Amino acid sequence: MFSYPQTEETKKLLSAEELAQELGVSRTTAYALLWSGQIPSMKIGRLRKIRRKDVEAFIEARMENGEHGAA
After folding, report:
1. Least crowded by CB within 10 Å, which of 2, 32, 34, 57?
2. Which option is the CATH number for 12-61: 2.60.300, 3.40.50, 3.90.105, 2.30.110?
3. Parallel, antiparallel, or unpaired for β 47-51 and 42-44?
4. CA 51 from centre of chain
């Protein structure tokens, strides 16, 4: 099996397990967020991949007022 080298674009893709680690949640919760459409994802072969910018947007949308730039 040939392994493609990672490019800057592919480094921006996370697995569901990496998503769970990033958010500090279980793998089951990460998959629930993906299946519900709260975090967009794509299927590549049998793997589910998530763009880092979509994870950042998900987090940003859930920030409470006053947390941005608070010292």
Report:
1. 2
2. 3.90.105
3. antiparallel
4. 6
